[in-house]
Design goal:
By secondary structure, the protein is an alpha+beta fold. The protein has two domains: 59 residues, 2,3-Dihydroxybiphenyl 1,2-Dioxygenase, domain 1 (Roll); 50 residues, 2,3-Dihydroxybiphenyl 1,2-Dioxygenase, domain 1 (Roll). Helix content is 19%, strand content 36%. The protein has three helices and nine strands. Strands 1, 2, 3, 4, 5, 6, 7, 8 and 9 form a nine-stranded mixed sheet that branches. A hairpin with a 3-residue loop joins strand 2 and strand 3. The N and C termini lie far apart (45 Å).
Length: 137
């Protein structure tokens, strides 16, 4: 076992529930080829398709695979994908913890009418996106 790490069921004080994985984002040069691979090769269901992106769904899972077309060489070659996207309850409280644990904010926090979005690079380099939606009261 790694030093100082133990299984735990305790939540961090600012989390009323654990984050949930929303989707995995994969960037591709050929959206058509990628859709064919995931749909016909792996049997994922095609939920949505546009000229720039596709959403595929898996059986017995709320997590989707998002494919996004890009021609940007830097986006395809410097570790910007896949992106694991998590729905969270309190992004502002979570950000300092993620930074203290070795994460790096990758860009600004985007505040939109539907909520806020931030991008992080985890200590090992994985791209993480946090989504916090606005509450409807």
């Amino acid at each position: 076992m790694l030093r100082g790490l133990r299984p735990s069921r305790k939540y961090l004080p600012h989390m009323s529930r654990l984050p949930s994985l929303s989707h995995v984002l994969i960037l591709t040069r050929s959206l058509e080829n990628s859709v064919k691979f995931y749909q016909h090769g792996l049997g994922l269901g095609l939920k949505e398709l546009t000229d720039t992106h596709a959403e595929l769904e898996m059986a017995n899972s709320d997590v989707s695979v998002m494919l996004r077309h890009t021609e940007g060489e830097s986006m395809l070659s410097h570790g910007y994908f896949p992106v694991l996207t998590f729905n969270v309850q309190d992004m502002d409280a979570m950000i300092p913890d993620l930074i203290a644990l070795g994460g790096h904010l990758d860009g600004m926090i985007e505040r939109t009418p539907f909520g806020q979005v931030s991008s992080f690079r985890a200590p090992e380099g994985t791209m993480i996106s946090l989504l916090e939606g606005n509450s409807v009261e």
